[in-house]
UniProtKB/TrEMBL annotation:
It comes from Pogona vitticeps (central bearded dragon). Residues 194-214 are annotated as: Disordered. This is Lysosome-associated membrane glycoprotein 1. It comes from the Eukaryota. Residues 23-170, 215-361 form the Lysosome-associated membrane glycoprotein 2-like luminal domain. Disulfide bonds join 35-74, 148-184, 335-372. Residues 201-212 have a biased composition (Low complexity). Residues 1-24 form the signal peptide. The chain crosses the membrane at residues 379-402. Belongs to the LAMP family. PROSITE patterns: LAMP_1 (PS00310), LAMP_2 (PS00311), LAMP_3 (PS51407). Residues 381-412 form the Lysosome-associated membrane glycoprotein 2-like transmembrane domain.
């Protein structure tokens, strides 16, 4: 009886050990602090060639998967990226590189290394050790755990990586998962359809998800042969609307990151700024009108990928007849209030806290400011209140002076 009980316990312990090994990974720094915790299922679909043909093999993370301590990192000194490396089998591994900003962290790259010499996994394969990598859209607000139960697909050359049942957090401060959660888009889309947004599931925390917060302000400058032709600082938010596979219409709003890669060009009549981050790109085109002495944003186009629930997999939209961000040549345009730039029925860009100047930029810095109408309207109220107060003070003062004079006059006559 006791023996059977013990065997049950042992079996339980072994199973628990397997479950733990196969799904929860922890990276610990030299001082014993946990910096990354991750729990996920992952499958790899690998295309490879044998001497005669090409094969496809699907592998899941086996129970022997374990953190590779020497390749994982909590970030040392100036190095702020953190790395989770998980090895399994005969020379296979997956490496997640985390990067953070002041408000969020993200898996900037995912690398999968596999060993085609391991014929127990890749029967009859030719070729030895291989590597594939790509960027991911795994991103969460700092001090929240990232959750994604739905499948998240990352495509690489010859490899497709499918994550599911993911809970992870990097840049941990308290050795354990945060009580707050950032839910991935795939999960949000299925648990919170737009028609019922008020029914926020009880598992959702109140943590600000990256897309509901105002975007961080990025700074851009573009130079041509005559020096700088564009200076801009602005926060950007992308809003796309798409139809889903089951014929509903959904919107997705997300913040464009603060430090995208960017490029641009200057010529006599147009100034262009291209921003690229992950699968999203934005192209701004400014023109100037010599007869009115004004420049403005005339063209804005966008390309981005759609979430998995959408019918297509990407969206491209452009509008070349805008008249936004308009100011006098040689001066800068500024708007603190949010501005919505309509591109098409399916796409728009919200611009926050913008200051921009295109074409002539004397001294390579912003010239005098022309404030947008929205800001002027917002400023009008304090000005009116201020003027009214000043008027009141003046009236009181005059009344007092008149009063004083009268009483003086009174004394003199006595
Ligand atoms: C990790 O995932 C497994 C399976 O989904 C679950 O049983 C386990 O409780 C999770 N562990 C943590 C620490 O969340
Ligand atoms: C992808 O696989 C093909 C054959 O299946 C091979 O020729 C090619 O080199 C592989 N590409 C990479 C980047 O591994
Ligand atoms: C990490 O250690 C494993 C064996 O434990 C070794 O095979 C691998 O080459 C090491 N990697 C690095 C980058 O040192
Ligand atoms: C790749 O697999 C072969 C065969 O199993 C093994 O001999 C070799 O050590 C593996 N390579 C690595 C880096 O583990
Ligand atoms: C590997 O190749 C041998 C002969 O070339 C063949 O008989 C066998 O079926 C192949 N195995 C697989 C899994 O394709
Ligand atoms: C990397 O991911 C992007 C976006 O998902 C995709 O368009 C691109 O084809 C991927 N790269 C490779 C080499 O598969
Ligand atoms: C995710 O976890 C749930 C519950 O543990 C399980 O039923 C489901 O099969 C898992 N999905 C995948 C793709 O592993
Ligand atoms: C969740 O976030 C809120 C606001 O940022 C914070 O006040 C609260 O302490 C957090 N809760 C936990 C459990 O971390
Ligand atoms: C233009 O951008 C570069 C790189 O971001 C920066 O080093 C430089 O100071 C900027 N120039 C101006 C005039 O803002
Ligand atoms: C996004 O676009 C949709 C459709 O044009 C609109 O109803 C919604 O208010 C927009 N949301 C934001 C935050 O701009
Ligand atoms: C759309 O499909 C998802 C799963 O594919 C389902 O959960 C959801 O209820 C469907 N919505 C509608 C309105 O049919
Ligand atoms: C641009 O302007 C300069 C001087 O203002 C002129 O020399 C040049 O030919 C112009 N370039 C084009 C393409 O119009």
């Amino acid at each position: 009886m006791a023996a059977r009980y013990n065997r049950g316990l042992l079996l339980g312990a072994v199973l628990l050990g397997f479950l733990k090994a196969s799904s929860t990974f922890e990276v610990i720094d030299d001082s014993g602090k946990t910096c990354i915790l991750a729990n996920f299922s992952v499958q790899f679909i690998v295309e490879y060639s044998t001497s005669t043909k090409s094969e496809t093999q699907t592998i899941s993370l086996p129970p022997d998967a374990h953190v590779l301590k020497n390749e994982s990192s909590c970030g040392k000194g100036k190095e702020v990226s953190q790395i989770l490396a998980v090895g399994f089998g005969h020379g296979h591994s997956i490496l997640l590189t985390f990067e953070k900003t002041s408000s969020s962290y993200a898996v900037s790259t995912l690398k999968f290394s596999y060993n085609l010499s391991d014929t127990s996994v890749f029967p009859n394969a030719t070729g030895g050790e291989k590597e594939a990598s790509n960027a991911t859209d795994i991103k969460a607000a700092l001090n929240t755990r990232y959750r994604c139960l739905n499948k998240n697909t990352i495509s690489m050359a010859n490899v497709t990586v499918l994550f599911s049942n993911v809970t992870l957090e990097a840049y941990l401060t308290r050795n354990t998962f945060s009580g707050n959660e950032t839910i991935c888009f795939e999960d949000r889309a299925t648990t919170v359809p737009p028609a019922t947004t008020s029914h926020i599931p009880t598992t959702t925390s109140l943590a600000p998800s990256p897309s509901t917060k105002d975007p961080d302000v990025g700074h851009y400058n573009v130079s041509g042969s005559h020096g700088i032709c564009l200076l801009a600082s602005m926060g950007l938010q992308v809003n796309i609307t798409y139809s889903t596979k089951n014929e509903t219409i959904n919107s997705q709003v997300f913040n464009f990151p603060q430090n995208p890669s960017y490029s641009g060009s200057c010529d006599n009549n147009t100034v262009t700024l291209n921003l690229i981050s992950g699968s999203t790109s934005l192209r701004f085109q400014f023109v100037q009108n010599a007869s009115t002495d004004k420049y403005f944003l005339q063209g804005l186009s966008m390309n981005t990928s759609l979430p998995s629930e959408a019918k297509g997999n990407k969206i491209s939209a452009g509008n070349n007849s805008l008249s936004a961000l308009k100011a006098t040549i040689g001066k800068s345009y500024r708007c603190v209030a949010e501005e919505n730039v309509w591109i098409s029925e399916n796409a728009s860009v919200n611009i926050f806290n913008v200051q921009v100047q295109a074409f002539k930029i004397p001294g390579d810095k912003f010239g005098s400011v022309e404030e947008c109408q929205l800001d002027e309207n917002n400023m009008l109220i304090p000005i009116i209140v201020g003027a009214a107060l000043a008027g009141l003070v003046l009236i009181v003062l005059i009344a007092y002076l008149i009063g004083r004079k009268r009483s003086h006059a009174g004394y003199q006559t006595i």
